[in-house]
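User: Sequence in, structure out. Go.
Assistant: Echoing your sequence, followed by the structure tokens.
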Amino acid sequence: MTIAKGVSVGPYEIVSPIGAGGMGEVWRARDRRIGRDVAVKILPEEFNDEAVRRFEQEARAAGALNHPGLVTIFDVGTTDRSPYIVMELLEGRTLRAVLGEDVPTALPLRKALDYAAQIAAALAVAHEKGIIHRDLKPENLFITSDRRVKILDFGLAKLAADAKDADGRARTPKNLTAAGIAIGTPAYMSPEQVRADSVDYRTDIFSLGTVLYEMLTGKPAFECFSAVETMHAVLNVEPAPIESLVPEISPALATIVHHCLEKDPRERFQSARDLGFQLRMLPEMQRSMTGTQLPAVGRKLSFRVGFLVIPLILAAALGGFVLRGLRGGGSQAIPRTYKQLTFADGLEIFPTLAPDGKSFAYVSAQSGNRDIYVQRVDGRTAINITNDSQADDSEPSFSPDGSQIAFRSERDGGGIFLMGVTGESVRRLTNDGHNPSWSPDGKRLTYSTAATELKPNSHPRDGELWIVDAGGGGKKKLFSRNAKSTVNTDALQPSWSPHGKRIAFWGVISNGTAQRDLWTIDPDAPQPAQTLARVTSDEALDWNPVWSPAGDYLYFGSDRDSTLNLWRVAIDEDSGKPSRPPEALLLPAAISSNFALSQHGEVMFTAVTRFFDVTALPFDAATGKTDAPQRLFSGSQEITSFEPSPDRQTIAFTTGAMQEDVYTANADGTRVRQLTNDPARDRWVTWAPNGKTLYFYSNRGGGYDLWSIHSDGSNLARVTQHGEVYTADVSPDGRTLAARTSSKTVLVHLERPLANRLEPLGVSLAEPQWSPDGKQLLGVANRRIAVYTVATRQLVPLAEGGISPQWLPDGKHIVFFRDQQIMVLDIDTRAVTASVLPSSMKADFDDRSVRPRLSKDGSTLYMRQSLAQSDIWMMRLEKE
């Protein structure tokens, strides 16, 4: 097929050539359906039909992967017998171009480690889905303009291995040096590839080792005059010791590189996830992330079965402080060891250690619903102890003697239940409650009425503290928010102190700042609320307090160093008050909202990796059906709200977790512009009809109010000063906002003075949205989709259940979402057309905080997806 400007390849119009790309030519093209530029790779015609079929299967599998380090594959197909693949269009250079084509140059140490860690993280996701790259090399690694690494050509190496010449003969090893034609590139092939043995994911670890070697030294690990000599070296010759080429490199890093390059795959790292963890543990990497000058490691890392032993100096370096014993004794630094305990795909959460520290329980949905699993710390076999019920079971807590587990279950309406440690004799304790914690004598439990999931910054409802008798007796309320009190906080994730004197919890203060702080309370006082003691009081997000075994420390999660990590504060158990400022116990990965301590002081935590995508689905309003999802942009920064501009050329979004700010980006993810950059929490962004002004709500003025800003970052201005105004939508004429307060829907008249802009409507309509003619508001009232006529003040229900209702441009139909379906409703006839969302879009469908958005012309549906992977880890202190 002849490719030139203006030629159509499927629905893609060729724009201009980009260059050669492995097996074929790469062209810039325009996706006519959603108006976005993409990259189209046209493959040689000589691949036979069976090879192309296998290629499409492999490419679609790779395209299903969801990770910012893997180039997004949008589509595959064949045109005039030429197979093609459609990918995201990247801006930047290949790693080969960065290193240099003819005379490679070593990269700065921090940059090389950053790139290697990104590659390892992306490989881990692919490997866990059973996909192997087989041809990892600098030419297949792309460095974007914002220094993200993208792995190119997943799936193409396998096609090359199956390829045949035009006469039907299989390609021979002489073709291995041809770019993109062989099953590998000699200088980066693993020994098992050279021998034509079967390969697994460890072949990619070897190849990554060669790439890391070259990034650090500027020289290939294996390169000779000919391909044959290079392959001989891969099989029989050890690369020059990296220490001899880069004297300043630490022995720990040198050990990691050589461990990747072991000839026998059994001697290499056994997973890319393990390799990535080792890289992140290095002082060089920690210095890159924190900017702190850390001392060099004086000896090699010691690899032991199951554990990575961190030398004394490294343990001190990682946290930037001297680590004291978990029981508070001693002041000398002692080394820490880490052990990964779970390895399955998906989320493993809510870890809790048995009192003896020999076994643990955690929660996983690998069975299809949430279940509680028990596993030995020194084992790999997990036993599902709640498989007797199809309801979700979660939040386990071992009794002090280790004989029972209290847990939250959704069975029979939900509540706190008890069972034996092997799952026997399940019985209900309460009809509500979350995160149960035992009293030290095992006779009582405390719990909160509100749940806390993986996002501690999320707070769907207020929590109250209750105490219940473990033997089935009565329960009593211990504490709840009191708006008349000077201490106006709620209570979540309680933890009973080891001598029973105090219960620690965290709560959200209702003072306009939504500050998250730690508290303690005396559970046995005549008036417990009068015994409240505040443990933290600052802007940091503090959560999940857990007492040390001796009761002299509270361990807790916090973002006070700009990462979700582990901290502790010295505390007096009698008074519940802190005696010193908090100190960091930095872990090598961001943690979730749950961790635990055993009676011997081991710390168990959940290491979480999350990535977020904004995806566009071409949408047919007549049928409610969608076309293939198209990923627009992604990253590890949480996207909490987003909306396309009226012309669909720009997407505005807000971020969460560490800092909540307003951004804009081109629809393809390029030209990201940060509009706000400060500690204020900026949320729920929406466009004005002019496409130039953005509205959002923020606490930058004290309480939450509406603010506006121009899309170029200028003219930040306050819109309301009520103190409780949220989630606005702009009328078609741009003069009025429909917004929410804590109790009702209001109109915000922009032409009035600031002090009297609010007009209460006397109705509580969630997610209000203006009709195209500006006369009605669509939203959710009492769990029903409803429409409200502003002039008559009349509310008319339209449908039971559903979320995120939005108008279609004709003003006669609406779209909403229910039970993983897209619903199109005719307002006049109430007829509903339903279509199922693509299976790949279901992950975030029920996240009400991130609603789907329909473009103003009704042609495109935008949704956020997230990929979360978590594993359970244990930290121990090594005895001297």
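User: And one key feature?
Assistant: Residues 326 and 601 are 6 Å apart (CA to CA).
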